[in-house]
Amino acid sequence: MKRSIWIIITIFALIAGLAIGVFGVSKIVQNRAFIPELKIIGDIRNVIKIPDIDIFEDTSIINIEGDTIKAFPLRQLIDFGEPFSQQNSILIVGHDGSAAELDYSELAKSYIAFGSEHGWHSINLNHPVSTKIKRIKEIAVISKGMDIDYEYGLSIITTGENLLNITPGQAYGRTTEYLNPEGNVSMEKDGSQYRASIYSKEKVLRIEELLDHDIEENIVLMGRDGNIVYTGNTGLIKLDDNHFNYVDGLSGDREIIDLAGIMMDPPGASIMDVYNDCIYYTGRDEKVMVIILDGFGYHQYEYAYANNYIDFMKDAGSITVVSSVIKPVTNSGLAAMFTGRPPAENGVHNHDNRQPLVPTIFASIIQDNKRALYIEGDIQILKTEIDPVLNIDRNNDGYRDDDIFEYSMENIDSGFDLMVVHFHSIDDAGHDFGDIVVETMDRIKILDSYVEELVLGWDGYVIVTADHGMHPTPDGGSHGEFRYEDMFVPYIVFSPGQ
To answer: Rounded to whole angstroms, how far apart are CA atoms 324 and 293?
Structure first.
């Protein structure tokens, strides 16, 4: 919001005064009764709203058939919005349905101007005259390149495949308009009651249209604010300037603002089950150890299993795939596990948040007069009801997991009802080398041996899972996006004595 305000202020500062130039040239008649707002939307980080010609100042003087006109360069205007990609097409859409599509790289001598006769209109001196769109409704930036990461737009995934990643600009031409009921109004006049229904036009599309086939299974939808909707009704996706919103059917009973992605045929569980399982087991006076293998995606588990990098974890009695949360990073993942609530409810959405807004599992343990131990790396990631035991890399081998493991084994028989052990080296290796390369697989192999010793030494249930997964990048690996590699992790339960 602050950046959008800054953009508008910048435009005011850079381009105020077009009115003087416009009203001082021929064929333009001054008429200030109504000036429609012009918006630039689509694949830009900041929506540009131009409500008035008075915002223009630093403009270009162009000559068209002897007439001198002040106008603003279109490419410079687009750049104010910070396009997602440098490979774009620019769709200029008129109120009458006419449109012209220009390549972002070919916007030299393309301008936007305002006049009482044609309203906001485009002037493209290097293009055919048919590209001059009168009474412009909006301008959409459409990404053409493959360099758009999954942090933007809408992604549709399964547990083993990224089906689709589409940006708002790319979806622009696939939407249909429908009348959204806003409400009913009435007034009394001359003893009679006059009523009317008010509607607004919205651009919408259905998930079936994106995938080009009917959807029969249940789906899970997640917003960038951490909101989650489980539904069998696919509802409507609304295109809202530079992001998507979701409404569960025309009634709008459930809504997600800034929809990040959709899981098709999702697993029936999530990392939030850690909280529920711990409550269940400790409520039966069973001891529980939670082992968190940071950055260990389910696809990495499958690869390690198939290539003999794990021996112990593949023999567990209960292995399932579960979903992480948005944003799939450590802070939000741990908060979801510790609270049993999605980020929209626990308040931890990303790396910037450290304080859950609701009680964690440690509060429940304390309330039940039980003992808990939380063993971490060298920093406190979340603020919880108990302080974690921090571990540095004492032997300078580049990893802290051996130190975390040693401390865990030293305290495994100390009478704790709940132990949480957070290992980090799979995530560290994944970032440095990649998700399924030998260096990362070697760390998984080491962690598998740590898990084995902890399970065999613990007199109770053991839950092994991860906060998020890891996807490959040209330089190694990363996470934090709505894609199957980041969003699905293993969930393994070892029973006492197993």
So the answer is: 13
Q: Name the pLDDT band for 59 (thresholds 50, 70, 90).
A: low
Neighbours of 294 (CB within 10 A): 24
Tell me how far CA of residue 30 lies from CA of 23, 115, 426, in angstroms.
6, 8, 67
DSSP secondary structure string for all residues of 17-82: THHHHHHTSTT-----S----EEEEESBSS-EEE--GGG-BS-EEEEETTEEEEEEEHHHHHHHT-
Are 70 and 53 within 8 A, CB to CB? no
**Which helix H or strand E contains 120, and what residues bound it?**
strand 119-124
- Start-to-end C-alpha separation, the chain: 53
State residue 52 phi and psi, 5-degree precision: -155, 145
Is the pLDDT score of 73 beyond 80? Answer: yes
**237, 244 in Cβ contact below 8 A?**
yes
Given a contact cutoff of 8 angstroms between Cβ atoms, the answer to whether 102 and 63 are in contact is no
What pLDDT score was predicted for residue 197?
87
Residue 201, pLDDT score: 79
State the pLDDT confidence band at 65, using cuts at 50, 70 and 90.
low
Helix (H, G, I), strand (E, B) or coil at 375: strand
3-class DSSP assignment, residue 221: strand
- Among 252-256, 328-332, 478-482, where is mean pLDDT lowest? 252-256
Task: Tell me the mean pLDDT in the region 123-137.
Answer: 92
**pLDDT at res. 30:** 38
Is the pLDDT confidence value at 69 over 50?
A: yes
- pLDDT, one tens digit per residue, over 262-275 is 999 999 899 999 99
Distance, CA of 444 to CA of 451 (rounded, Å)? 10
339 contacts 356 by C-beta, under 8 angstroms:
yes
Instruction: From 436, 443, 419, 421, select the one nearest 470 (Cα to Cα).
Output: 436
Tell me which amino acid residue 468 is. H
Residue found under tokens 């031409």: 173
